[in-house]
Amino acid sequence: MKFIYFRFKNFKGIEDEKLDLSKTPESNIFTLVGLNESGKTTILEAINYFKYKPEKLDVLELKEYEIQDIHTLIPINKRDNFNDKITIEAGIELDDEDILKIKKEFEQKNLIIDKLGTKFTYTQIYHFEKSKHIKERDQSLWTYDITGRKKNGKKINKLENSDALIANNFITKNLPSILYFPNFLFEFPERIYLNNETQNEKDLFYQKIIQDTLDSLENDLNINDHLIFRIVSQDANDKRNLTSLIGKLQKKLSDVIFNKWNQIFNKHLSNKEIILYTGVDSIGTYIEFNIKDDVDTYRISERSLGFRWFFVYILLTQFRTYRKENKNAFYLFDEPASNLHPSAQIELLKSFEKLSKVIYTTHSQYLINPKWLESTFVIKNEAIDYENEADYNSKNTNIKISKYREFAVKYPNQSNYFQPILEVLDYKPSNLELVPKVIITEGKNDFYTLNYFKEIVKNKYIINIIPGTSASNLETLISLYLGWGSKFIVILDDDKQGNEQKKRYINIFGEIVKDSIFTLREIDKNWDKYELEDIISEEDKNIIIDKVYTESKASNKTILNRSIQELYLNNVFPSLSKTTLQNFNILFKFLEGRLNDLS
């Protein structure tokens, strides 16, 4: 069972938007990017406001987790007299196992199901008059497509709502748990009480976490039989068995937590381990988590803020994957790990792949994975002109959700909204002195194009490529290579700019560079007035763009270059025409030959 979309109306700054999670069925990780105050957090809050949640995190007392006053949801520009509805709608899709279980539940009620649709819709409607919430008019609706008959009946009809509620009860009980983490800054309890009869909701929550750690040992263990019973028992065998189990738990926790710590923070903490204490006090049986560092032992609460954040994240997410029931969690992370250094953010991003489903917001390029761009959304607040924030007008507040690719095609010049993505796709130069012979391009777009097609033509040409910053700004690179006495070739477009810059560089550096700078026409006379992209056939340009922007009919230089960059980083190489491949073979053969002639 999974969520396939959410739709929000009049929720804070969202007028009417749909977050579609169904067009990328392969993806379980969704990224929200956008500028400050664009509405990314509002999207997460709206999802978290969905009422059917088998599990909640309110016991953790996370700051900004819950919306305390429903009136704060009224759109700012309508607060003076709001006479409308706030709506949250969720689309849910069942899998084959869900359908089989629901049919069995119907059979137990003497109902034979003829048709059970796989998609259901749940809608929450909150009514307001004169900006006041009218609670008694609120509605919780669901739509279904179920037909069947009584066990001994013959006539097939659409089920009455009273009968269809059998399916409703199953779905609401087994929905993915929406777990919203606006942060991980909360106090981990010094003692977790294990008794079932406890009325403390926080203990009940953490008991499930303890069970997750038991399940990670994969030995059919449970809290009652293997912890509580042995903790209170006076039998020597029970105590030995408890000691054995605690030892295994400590090792598992230490391995998972500190191995992950070493990966993320690139620090080797071989002398640290998790220590578990158990006992009985006036409240009941309990377990304590501690950290042993050489000879000293500390409570979790006594460790640094960074470690506490990390410890809780691992405990609540990585061990959750072992849960046997309701393990289908749907994690919402708001700016996760924004306080960690770049390499730690990159490693943390990898940990998302172990989770069942994630939506997260970010401003950081280190929390962008190029392989997840198909499931990346750009969030834009149309009320804010970031060039002139003083002209902010709350009446125009309207948060828009766009798929990244569609936004990039429609607004290619508004790249500030998805700048972290461009920074990930951008070139990171290495030490130039380690490259003795190079091809220097006008910029990063040509750099990616040449490297990409070098792979497509089976990488048989031995050339190294580095990017300049523009056709008119290559003096520094040329000076460096001349100073090192290293050989280089500069390749320029055969447009007005390219020809003018070639003459300028020869005037600056003299005849010594005359045989090292070439326009495309000098490589092949058929490439008169060509830019590098022009040696790709129009048909192949469309093939390349379609591989990335499948729903786009637009074809321009910006979209083509972004498509090439992404395909190159993800090692995707479509079949292209002989004409294009021949053009690049001509180009690479010329460049390799000229470099060898200069040696």
List the helices and strands and how they pair.
Layout: E1 2-11, E2 14-20, E3 29-33, H1 40-48, E4 85-93, H2 96-108, E5 111-116, E6 119-129, E7 132-133, E8 139-143, E9 146-150, E10 157-158, H3 161-174, E11 177-181, E12 192-193, H4 201-216, H5 223-232, H6 236-265, E13 272-280, E14 285-293, E15 296-299, H7 305-317, E16 329-334, H8 342-351, E17 358-361, E18 376-381, E19 399-403, H9 404-410, H10 419-425, E20 437-441, H11 444-456, E21 464-467, H12 475-484, E22 487-492, H13 496-509, E23 517-519, H14 520-523, H15 538-548, H16 557-569, H17 578-598
Parallel strand pairs: 3-17, 3-18, 11-16, 16-17, 20-21, 20-22, 22-23
Antiparallel strand pairs: 1-2, 1-4, 4-6, 5-9, 6-7, 6-8, 9-10, 12-14, 13-14, 14-15, 18-19
Helix pairs in contact: 2-3, 5-6, 6-7, 11-16, 15-16
Protein name: AAA family ATPase
InterPro entries: AAA_GajA/Old/RecF-like, Bact_Antivir_Def_Nuclease, P-loop_NTPase
Organism: Chryseobacterium sediminis
Explain what you see.
The chain has 599 residues and is an alpha/beta fold. The chain folds into 3 domains: 2-176 and 329-421, Rossmann fold (3-Layer(aba) Sandwich); 192-322, no CATH class; 428-598, no CATH class. It has helices spanning 40-48, 96-108, 161-174, 201-216, 223-232, 236-265, 305-317, 342-351, 404-410, 419-425, 444-456, 475-484, 496-509, 520-523, 538-548, 557-569, 578-598; strands spanning 2-11, 14-20, 29-33, 85-93, 111-116, 119-129, 132-133, 139-143, 146-150, 157-158, 177-181, 192-193, 272-280, 285-293, 296-299, 329-334, 358-361, 376-381, 399-403, 437-441, 464-467, 487-492, 517-519. The strands form 5 sheets. Strands 1, 2, 4, 6, 7 and 8 form a 6-stranded antiparallel sheet that branches. Strands 11-16-17-3-18-19 form a 6-stranded mixed sheet. It is globular and about 90 Å long. It starts with a strand and ends with a helix.
